[in-house]
Design brief:
280 residues, Rossmann fold, 2 domains, binds S-adenosylmethionine, alpha/beta
Length: 280
């Protein structure tokens, strides 16, 4: 039998050749929360107690998986996103903090909207988070991946947040939805040439169809979605994009060329160009 304090030390010693001390602490407290629902203060108060066996087993399993570069969110089975526990697995992108910033901008902007459409919804994190804050809103998420749609539907059912998830390719010749007030997308936007410089815990575990675009057409999703917005957005409708930091100006120009107004480029908390919004 070992105390929580000595298990924390063991966890650090097992992983300190791969991760920073701060990252290891973060993983440890995430696991404590998953298994025991303990916050840091509970650890401080109980660290000398003998560990629960379920916690010990999960911790040892996590050490093996983390050494294989598996993302902590896959090990836990969920990610915390905008006050919600969103289930994730290898079929969907792990929702990122930048996307929470996108949701914040939408939520702060919302006034008279009735319908929100999220294209490339993945886990469903965006429409689920917005609908959670605005239960009256009719929210729809679409994705080309049937496996992603299944994860999004599971999230909707488990959280009790009613969002329609539809299997739909944005490049299909006809799109079955219109009369939209809020059109949002965090589409694939990383040029394939960046793959070799990316971390294995992304490249080996997240779906490439959610991440990458061809080097010779990195804005392909923005062009089609912005074009679609001119047809399906209601008067006073708005479009919200998460973007690659390198393409801010090009996406602003793309929207301006399609006669969108109030085209705005926002930086994320790291100061990188990350979000573009515009009105129809
Ligand atoms: C960057 S992920 C975003 C997922 C989620 N919205 C988020 O923010 O975490 C992009 C999503 O676009 C989807 N996607 C890729 N190609 C698509 C297409 N042709 N039509 C619709 N969705 C597509 C992927 O399956 C993936 O779920």
């Amino acid at each position: 039998m070992e105390s929580y304090k000595s298990l924390k030390k063991h966890f650090h010693q097992s992983l300190n050749d791969v991760f920073s001390s701060r990252e290891i602490d973060y993983f440890f407290f995430q696991i404590l929360y998953k298994i025991l629902k303990w916050q840091k203060i509970d650890y401080v108060l109980n660290q000398e107690n003998f560990s629960d066996s379920e916690f010990l087993n999960f911790l040892n399993h996590a050490i093996l998986e983390l050494k294989l570069n598996r993302p902590i969110q896959h090990i836990l089975g969920y990610v915390s996103f905008y006050d919600l526990e969103i289930k994730v697995n290898g079929d969907v992108l792990i929702p990122r903090p930048e996307t929470e910033e996108l949701v914040s901008i939408i939520v702060n902007d919302l006034s008279n909207a009735n319908t929100l459409l999220d294209i490339g919804t993945g886990s469903g994190c965006i429409p689920l988070a917005v609908k959670y804050k605005f239960p009256h809103l009719n929210c729809i998420g679409t994705d080309v991946s049937i496996k992603a749609i299944k994860v999004a539907q599971e999230n909707s059912a488990r959280l009790g947040i009613d969002v329609d998830f539809i299997h739909q390719d944005v490049f299909a010749s006809s799109f079955p939805l219109d009369s939209i007030d809020i059109l949002v997308s965090n589409p694939p936007y990383i040029p394939k040439k960046e793959l070799s410089s990316m971390s294995p815990n992304v490249v080996d575990y997240e779906p490439h169809s959610a991440l990458f675009v061809p080097d010779n057409n990195p804005l392909m999703f923005y062009s089609i979605i912005a074009e679609m917005g001119t047809k399906i957005l209601n008067k006073n409708g708005k479009i919200y994009f998460e973007i690659h930091e390198e393409y801010g100006d090009q996406i602003v120009n793309l929207l301006s060329d399609l006669n969108y107004s109030n085209v705005l480029l926002f930086q994320d908390l790291q100061g990188k160009n990350r979000i573009v919004t515009a009105s129809i």
